[in-house]
Amino acid sequence: AKSGLKSAFDQQMWSPDGKTSRILKQAPPWNDIVWQSEGAIQLPETGLNEKEILVWSGNFSHGCYGSELPAVRSVGIVDVNPKALLELLVDSSR
Fold first, then answer.
1. Which of 1, 52, 81, 89 has the fewest CB atoms within 10 Å distance of its CB?
2. Which strand (E) or helix (H) includes residue 14?
3. Which residues does 76 contact at the CB level (< 8 Å), separation at least 6?
């Protein structure tokens, strides 16, 4: 789990898709927020649509099994209470 978390927040590993790159250029405060790994997130007053989903792609450099496959990272605001989100994530029947 530590390796996955470390990779998820390694900015050097990830390249934003075109839409994500445009959004981050239009609203620079979001660039800091999407890489924040701890604590509560304070949303900036940028006028950015909070329904946007930001997407990056990258590759693992560790050379272990599966490292040749592309990786995808996404960031978005999920407007649901935490318990409902947890249930959705662990319920494989949905």
1. 1
2. strand 14-16
3. 51, 52, 53, 54
CA dihedral 88, 14, 23, 74 (to 10 degrees): 0
Give backbone dihedrals phi and psi of 69, rounded to 5 degrees, phi first: -85, 145
| Cα 83 to Cα 52, 74, 93, distances in angstroms | 22, 21, 17
Global pTM value: 0.75
Q: How confident is the model at residue 3 (pLDDT cuts 50, 70, 90)?
A: confident
d(CA 17, CA 30): 15
